Amino acid sequence: xxxxxxxxxxxxxxxxxxxxxxxxxxxxxxxxxxxxxxxxxxxxxxxxxxxxxxxxxxxxxxxxxxxxxxxxxxxxxxxxxxxxxxxxxxxxxxxxxxxxxxxxxxxxxxxxxxxxxxxxxxxxxxxxxxxxxxxxxxxxxxxxxxxxxxxxxxxxxxxxxxxxxxxxxxxxxxxxxxxxxxxxxxxxxxxxxxxxxxxxxxxxxxxxxxxxxxxxxxxxxxxxxxxxxxxxxxxxxxxxxxxxxxxxxxxxxxxxxxxxxxxxxxxxxxxxxxxxxxxxxxxxxxxxxxxxxxxxxxxxxxxxxxxxxxxxxxxxxxxxxxxxxxxxxxxxxxxxxxxxxxxxxxxxxxxxxxxxxxxxxxxxxxxxxxxxxxxxxxxxxxxxxx
Length: 386
Known about the structure:
Layout: H1 7-24, H2 28-34, H3 39-47, H4 66-79, H5 85-100, H6 103-114, E1 120-123, E2 139-143, E3 146-157, E4 164-170, E5 180-186, E6 192-197, E7 208-219, E8 223-224, H7 230-266, E9 268-269, E10 272-273, H8 278-306, H9 313-338, H10 349-357, H11 366-385
Parallel strand pairs: 1-4
Antiparallel strand pairs: 2-3, 3-7, 4-5, 5-8, 6-7, 9-10
Helix pairs in contact: 1-4, 4-7, 5-6, 5-7, 7-8, 7-9, 7-10, 8-9, 9-10, 9-11
């Protein structure tokens, strides 16, 4: 479909696609196998200014929005969903500063993040607090000009590789979720350590680690917003970053579809290309239709956010839900079309299937997305009745 992109948007899309095809594709199997973090690709993305797409020009960014970020993530994910995360996860860790940081915090951190000199990460999930984010136990106690953090965050993307972390911790246990606050914590801060690097089903080029805080002394000036705003920071951040997960899912699905289409055209059985068989044609038709629907919803949501609409929880959840479910369905179908070859690591679709699964899980499982959507629908009904 024609989404009427501007010349600048087409430029970002083309640039990301060229990097994906020329720099990432030759190395995606290597990084998937070795599970190394792709620092060489990070440098290429940084040189292309892609880390600063959504950051204001006065802080060294390109001054675009969520939509342009989604275009870049989609193109990178079309080749490798794991490597694309170095950009997407850094955006997740950066947006709390973009949305809630004061001028001093923005001046200090955003220029380095925009240039890709440093990466960011976001720390909310804990061993006992995944979907139930209200059960976090990491605490931050005020002592003079500092907060002392104690606790553990789990499954943090970019963990150990990033230099700047947005951490949600409890400052007032009596208030439950309303007692959470958000902090900027820098790598190297005394008492801030990393656990083992996790070995994962997919997105293996992305680093996932525990964050361990043991009497970690964080300057009070690193508090984002004010005390008690932690969950507002987290939820508002997810509202603007979930379309990025959707874009990642759309990209993975598109890559798998293109591989399956090409294979179906060249693979012959019974004297004919398998693309001539109606069973395969219907699978390809469904795959293409589902991807286009997910892309349309993702793009529309991103543009809605960039237009300044502050009530996007439902739409962001819908985009993430639909796109990730589509990615899982399409990649499974791609493996099926490849048959036995699809199950082999010599072909990319098995990796795409493994990478797709996480999009249904992180930044809120798809069951949680359905909760968000339903609650927003009920709120809208209540507002209409008032």
